[in-house]
């Protein structure tokens, strides 16, 4: 599919802008209606000023999306260029994010999870057949096409995707928690990194919490490098052996032994009748609430820690620039500013590359929304049981907006920080 950039002096002559859908570090997404028709698109508006020095990022995304046409992949419908902006007209999907839809269901079974994973596998297998590696598969990038119960799932966000032209890839990128061991080791890698990410997603879909987790990012990376995960009781007691076998093949430490997408599609948990039909919604939704409600803003901390880990590994074989801006852009939210505020720089120094509950507490204080945050204590049974929250809460004083500037929008005041984080945050704010 060839999409040439259509030149326009004013995008409003092509589309009627309806409302803002979201924004990122380099772009804004709006709901737009094509003039002369009822057709709606999600219009990604990218100022050229913001692209200076980073033009290849968007050009790569366009090059990838021009190649693809699949029912489970969000399509690029058109590209427009004005003197000041680049506009990507994307297929509009209205069904919401994966986790939100699971939480809204009346019931949810292994069979439902198997059907979801099968759809994503089909899309990723198609990408791989074209030589495309997505490199940032995660639940937030899996969207439902419509609000209806029978809606298909769609793979989105190709900002980190890459056309693998024969050679192995080497750029360190992705989202902490979903990156494969070979990527953390800065070894040449290929399509197998997508399969690993699908293994992580499959694990989460069956229990509601991630296979690799720790408040300490170095420990998180260590778990990934060892492929150290468990099927904990009681969360996995009612999950089939077939599902566990499927995940083991996807979370295989050695990329040469890891399943390909085609092999995964042929596994009986996907292609057969091995998935159990027992309702697991209660357990899964409870764990999703505990473990993922807070990740929307912690992800920004992890992205920088991930970058520091990679920088220690040395040279980048692909020769691509890997910067804080590039990594932050692909934390899904994209809410980091191009130039981090002073408190962010101070936090990086205070955290020394390890973003624990203590430094997260400092970050919360730095958000400066004038909110009285409720601080709870995290008590972990183990690395596989994150998010056990102690209900004893106390208010945390935060700085005023005039004192500190936040790169986040609408942070949740329910983030559990930990006593040490609260104390340090209060001290930093001059209590």
Sum up the structure in keywords.
CaMKI_beta_STKc, Calcium/calmodulin-dependent protein kinase type 1B, 431 residues, 6-stranded mixed beta sheet, 13% strand, Protein_kinase_ATP_BS, 3 domains, Phosphorylase Kinase, domain 1, 3-stranded antiparallel beta sheet, disordered C terminus, cytoplasm, calcium/calmodulin-dependent protein kinase activity, alpha+beta, Transferase(Phosphotransferase), domain 1
Write up this protein.
- GO terms for molecular function: ATP binding; calcium/calmodulin-dependent protein kinase activity; calmodulin binding.
- It is found in: Cytoplasm; Nucleus.
- Its main location: cytoplasm.
- The chain has 431 residues and is an alpha+beta fold.
- The protein has three domains: 5-91, Phosphorylase Kinase, domain 1, CATH 3.30.200; 96-292, Transferase(Phosphotransferase), domain 1, CATH 1.10.510; 342-431, no CATH class.
- It is built from 16 helices and 13 strands.
- It has helices spanning 48-51, 55-67, 98-104, 110-129, 181-184, 192-207, 217-226, 241-250, 261-266, 268-271, 281-292, 295-313, 324-329, 342-351, 357-367, 419-428, and strands at residues 5-7, 15-23, 28-34, 40-47, 76-81, 85-91, 96-97, 132-133, 142-144, 153-155, 162-163, 373-375, 394-396.
- The strands form four sheets. A six-stranded mixed β-sheet has the order 1-5-6-4-3-2. A three-stranded antiparallel β-sheet has the order 7-9-10. Strands 8-11 form a two-stranded antiparallel ribbon.
- Helix 15 (357-367) crosses helix 16 (419-428).
- The protein is globular, with a radius of gyration of 22 Å.
- The termini are far apart.
């Amino acid at each position: 599919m060839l999409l040439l950039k259509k030149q326009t002096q004013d995008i409003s002559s092509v589309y009627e802008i309806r409302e803002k859908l979201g924004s990122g570090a380099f772009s804004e997404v709006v709901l737009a209606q094509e003039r002369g028709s009822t057709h709606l698109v999600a219009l990604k508006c990218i100022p050229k000023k913001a692209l200076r020095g980073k033009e290849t990022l968007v050009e790569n995304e366009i090059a990838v999306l021009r190649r693809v046409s699949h029912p489970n992949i969000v399509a690029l419908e058109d590209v427009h260029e004005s003197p000041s902006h680049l506009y990507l007209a994307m297929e509009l999907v209205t069904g919401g994010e994966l986790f939100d839809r699971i939480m809204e269901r009346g019931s949810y079974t292994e069979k439902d999870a198997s059907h979801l994973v099968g759809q994503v596998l089909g899309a990723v297998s198609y990408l791989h057949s074209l030589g495309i590696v997505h490199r940032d598969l995660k639940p937030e990038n899996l969207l439902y096409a419509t609000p209806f119960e029978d809606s298909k799932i769609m793979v989105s966000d190709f900002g980190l995707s890459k056309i693998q032209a024969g050679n192995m890839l080497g750029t360190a990128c992705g989202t902490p928690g979903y990156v494969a061991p070979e990527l953390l080791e800065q070894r040449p890698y290929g399509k197998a990194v997508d399969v690993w990410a699908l293994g992580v997603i499959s694990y989460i879909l069956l229990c509601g919490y991630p296979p690799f987790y720790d408040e300490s990012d170095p420990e998180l990376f260590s778990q990934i490098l060892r492929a150290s995960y468990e099927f904990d009781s009681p969360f996995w007691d009612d999950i089939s052996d077939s599902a566990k076998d499927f995940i083991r093949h996807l979370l295989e430490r050695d990329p040469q032994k890891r399943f390909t997408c085609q092999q995964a599609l042929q596994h009986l948990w996907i292609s057969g009748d091995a998935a159990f039909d027992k309702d697991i919604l209660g357990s899964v939704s409870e764990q999703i609430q505990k473990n993922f409600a807070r990740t929307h803003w912690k992800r920004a901390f992890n992205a920088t820690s991930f970058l520091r880990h990679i920088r220690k590994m040395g040279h980048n074989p692909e020769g691509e620039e890997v910067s804080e801006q590039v990594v932050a852009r692909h934390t899904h939210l994209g809410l980091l500013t191009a130039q981090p505020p002073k408190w962010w720089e101070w936090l990086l120094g205070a955290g020394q590359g390890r973003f624990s509950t203590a430094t997260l507490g400092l970050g919360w204080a730095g958000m400066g929304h004038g909110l009285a945050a409720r601080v709870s204590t995290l008590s972990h049974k183990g690395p596989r049981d994150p998010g056990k929250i102690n209900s004893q809460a106390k208010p945390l004083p935060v700085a005023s907006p005039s004192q500190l500037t936040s790169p986040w929008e609408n942070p949740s005041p329910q983030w559990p920080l930990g006593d040490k984080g609260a104390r340090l945050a209060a001290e930093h704010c001059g209590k």
